[in-house]
Here is the input.
Amino acid sequence: MPRISMYFAVLLLLVVAMGTGAMADDPCCPPGSALGFSGSVGLEFTFTPVPPSSYNIETGLSLSIGISGFTFSSSTVFD
Here is the structure.
């Protein structure tokens, strides 16, 4: 159960980050008036066949959020 709540927390954080980023880069605002917010999300899948009949599957998730004066970065790999 704690894993499911962690996934929901990460999903909520991503949705909030994307929504805030969309508002910070609003095209109606003049240049130079942005909020100083940046963020990125990366997801990587690695599939490696190992003879004779097994597989190594890895999933990597990275999250980075930056607000002027504060930066948060996280990376997780699931086997």
User: Anything to note?
Assistant: The chain is about 30% helix and 45% strand. The two ends are 19 Å apart (CA to CA). The chain has a mean pLDDT of 71. Residues 2-78 form one domain.
